[in-house]
Amino acid sequence: MTRGKATVTGFVAVLLWSLLALFTVGTVPVPPFQLTAMAFLIGGSVGLVWIGWTGEFHVLRQIGWRVYLFGTLGLFGYHALYFSALRMAPAAEAGLIAYLWPLLIVLFSGLLPGERLRPLHIVGAIVSFIGAAIIVLGGAGGFAKDALPGFGLAFLCALSWSGYSVLSRKLGHTPTASVVVFCLSTAVLSAGAHLLWEATVWPTNTLGWSAVLGLGLGPVGLAFYVWDIGVKQGDIQLLGVASYGAPLLSTLVLVVAGVATPRPSLILAGVLITFGAAMAARASSARSAGN
Question: How far is CA 7 from CA 4, 112, 134, 175, in A?
Answer without folding.
Answer: 5, 17, 26, 17
